[in-house]
């Protein structure tokens, strides 16, 4: 039996917007494979040094791409990461940029222990739509979609929208 071709989905947005919550739930409901790039980098030590200012490791983007290349070719992947401009355009059939209101995002990041410059820069990143613009420059405009991600109702609505999109994609491509 030939395996059905399945889409690759990118979930991106500022840290704290709900990518991981949405990605894990989507994977559970669809059987697609969920990949958190931060976790993958940690497990496989895909780093290129340490950023003292932000107190975090520096992702080795080339090694991440090498690590994921074969999996992405198989299809059926949900990739979660706060950046998107280093992934090959050919990998994704659709890109969802999650967006969160600043007051909500501030509280989420603060509860994660973000403070000072790291907290301010992430809030500014959201204010200036940095990730959305990065996605629009990196992928075909028609596959990039913004989704509000402020509360459980948004999560459920986004889930339904993406599930419908997957269902339609499967019909159109199999």
Automatic annotation (TrEMBL):
Residues 111-121 are annotated as: LID. One of its GO terms (biological process) is ribosomal small subunit biogenesis. It catalyses: ATP + H2O = ADP + phosphate + H(+); AMP + ATP = 2 ADP. Residues 36-59 are annotated as: NMPbind. It is found in: Cytoplasm; Nucleus, Nucleoplasm; Nucleus, Cajal body. Its main location: cytoplasm. It comes from the Eukaryota. GO terms for cellular component: Cajal body; cytoplasm. The keyword Cytoplasm applies. Belongs to the adenylate kinase family. AK6 subfamily. This is Adenylate kinase isoenzyme 6. It comes from Acipenser oxyrinchus oxyrinchus.
């Amino acid at each position: 039996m030939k395996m059905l071709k399945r889409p690759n989905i990118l979930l991106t947005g500022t840290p704290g917007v709900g990518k991981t919550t949405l990605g894990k739930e989507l994977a559970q409901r669809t059987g697609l494979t969920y990949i958190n790039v931060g976790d993958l980098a940690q497990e496989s030590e895909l780093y290129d040094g340490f950023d003292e200012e932000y107190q975090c490791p520096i992702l080795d983007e080339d090694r991440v791409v090498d690590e994921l290349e074969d999996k992405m070719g198989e299809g059926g992947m949900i990739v979660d990461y706060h950046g998107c401009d280093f992934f090959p355009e050919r990998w994704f059939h659709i890109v969802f940029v999650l967006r969160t209101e600043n007051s909500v995002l501030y509280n989420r990041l603060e509860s994660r222990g973000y403070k000072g410059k790291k907290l301010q820069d992430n809030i500014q990143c959201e204010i200036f739509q940095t990730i959305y613009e990065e996605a629009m420059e990196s992928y075909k405009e028609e596959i990039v979609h913004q989704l509000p991600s402020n509360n459980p109702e948004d999560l459920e609505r986004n889930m339904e929208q993406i599930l419908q999109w997957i269902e339609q994609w499967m019909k159109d491509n199999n």
